[in-house]
Design brief:
With 207 residues, the protein is mainly alpha-helical. Helix content is 71%, strand content 5%.
Amino acid sequence: KEMGISESLWLSAFYIGFAILYGGAIWWAYEVGYLTTSDGLHAGKTYFTGFFIEKALSIDNVFVISLIFTFFAIPRKYQYRALVWGIIAVIVLRGIMIGVGAALVQEYSWILYIFGAFLIATGIKMLVVPESDPDISKNPVVRFFKKHMRVTDELHDQKFFVRKPDPVTGKLALWATPLFLALVIINIADLIFAVDSVPAIFAITTD
């Protein structure tokens, strides 16, 4: 179904509230001694610093996702399905990035300086490069999928794949829908944004 502004705000408030409660639980667990690798004040500060930095960095994600949905003409009632599967994929992909990053930091502590230099370079680029909306039609992933996969021109409700006759053979074949392409581009965009946000977290804490 199409999610309204009020429902979206309540859902966001729930997730933010849950994250704040989790941070409080981390703070408390360290403070009373259930977790002993750090003191409660330091653990709480680093958790909430990381959380609010990620919240700030997520604004870019929201803007780009909105552009992707607009380009593929995805109605609001189908956007939620793409976002849910996108979040599941993001949890897996970012989990891998965080795991690899943590192993690198543990083995080579100097790599944090590289992360820091990368973040500074990204900030400078944002200041000096003129702003412009990304042209999704020229995205190499979109062109690759349209060249190597059967992609329908129209949506088929909230389906990612449908079976339709092949125009050459006439036999039924599997076709991807624009909703699937939107899902793929959203996940690739998030991976690109993770290149900024994951090093930002490691600059705050490696716990």
